[in-house]
Amino acid sequence: xxxxxxxxxxxxxxxxxxxxxxxxxxxxxxxxxxxxxxxxxxxxxxxxxxxxxxxxxxxxxxxxxxxxxxxxxxxxxxxxxxxxxxxxxxxxxxxxxxxxxxxxxxxxxxxxxxxxxxxxxxxxxxxxxxxxxxxxxxxxxxxxxxxxxxxxxxxxxxxxxxxxxxxxxxxxxxxxxxxxxxxxxxxxxxxxxxxxxxxxxxxxxxxxxxxxxxxxxxxxxxxxxxxxxxxxxxxxxxxxxxxxxxxxxxxxxxxxxxxxxxxxxxxxxxxxxxxxxxxxxxxxxxxxxxxxxxxxxxxxxxxxxxxxxxxxxxxxxxxxxxxxxxxxxxxxxxxxxxxxxxxxxxxxxxxxxxxxxxxxxxxxxxxxxxxxxxxxxxxxxxxxxxxxxxxxxxxxxxxxxxxxxxxxxxxxxxxxxxxxxxxxxxxxxxxxxxxxxxxxxxxxxxxxxxxxxxxxxxxxxxxxxxxxxxxxxxxxxxxxxxxxxxxxxxxxxxxxxxxxxxxxxxxxxxxxxxxxxxxxxxxxxxxxxxxxxxxxxxxxxxxxxxxxxxxxxxx
Length: 555
Fold this sequence. Notes:
This protein is an alpha/beta fold.
């Protein structure tokens, strides 16, 4: 008979550098280890699309599980023969006296205060396990299924970079990033009853386009691909049995970025070239029926003399009237005075469906933008592209232009932002970007600190000198435990906020080494650049009552 289930957090940890598939079946209490690399049975399942079957196989073994990375933080686990209850509990089917690794899984790429609940259900033998399953009559999904969550998919940037990209990274940890899979998708309840056309029309909510993008990404572009939604399964009270289930996307999304998108510059589970970011982008485009952005070894490769460099200015609702006019003036002057450069303003909201946005950004060489969702298109441009980040003094998403070794990023200097940006300032940056592209930069010449603003450079130096600060900005304590409250409340994605130590009431959650931070601020001359008064302990911060600044405004 089945034994009572129990939560499994706190048991023996699953080390990230050890790949063991634990066969949850034991003989006399001895753990059996299944070598996945030698098993042809596992491989035969890897490319089968998820499909529904009403009846289980006649014989069923217990659950097998392999886990990588830190439980409760960025852990990913691959299960074989796993049950999910109507209450969305992961039920590990354990036969005999078997050891199960510490499993604490997060299904979204940003900070979440809870893990998915995992329960061990123990059985004396396989006959008892089979009787248990026969009584439940679960719905079965064969082939690879990926459980992930998206809670802001009315915004494409959150949908792609906090949900789909982290899910792809989870696949890549186990070498499954090229496989077809069935999405087991958890979405916010406010989107449960959303009505979408099939395929989504330009007038449908963005969430419709994103769910369609998830489905096509999973099915490798097959229009017949499906999605199973977690809330529909739970509302129906269904038990579900998965032949293969991959779970765990925690802390790999843009919400968890500091100076670069997680995993984008370093990923231990695959060769460095192509990067995990490039692999993701290629799959995103091809599953939409598009050629991916160009791959280059040099930024000037495939650009014969006289070829056109395309510059796109994002139309941004946050721009002042003066800045908007300065940008339009820059475009007019550039198109007349710079041979081989075409500069236009783009309103991304008019480019629908999502496929058209991808098709457009695929051919952009220089992207001029400021704070907001549009900056995320920087991650989708071809190799050899440059982002001109107009930014402001508060919320520069610097990691967006510093996450690819074959991309570069330029910033408006802080002294210029303080006094106001004019047409000449923008033209200077665009000319510099054109010269960088034609000069032939390569991945070998990439240094992340060269793609950061004055604020970003200070935080880069701080992280180089204080490993404790790096851990703290990731939300980890000195003993490696992750804390939701600190990670959620610290503005770790915004170097400007960290350097200016604002909001002041949030800084306690960042736990930075402020002594080193303030030394670096003095060394960078921020007090003089930003016009702050002498005698402030923090050098520059809101408490110093510095002069008013113009954020991304024109003069």
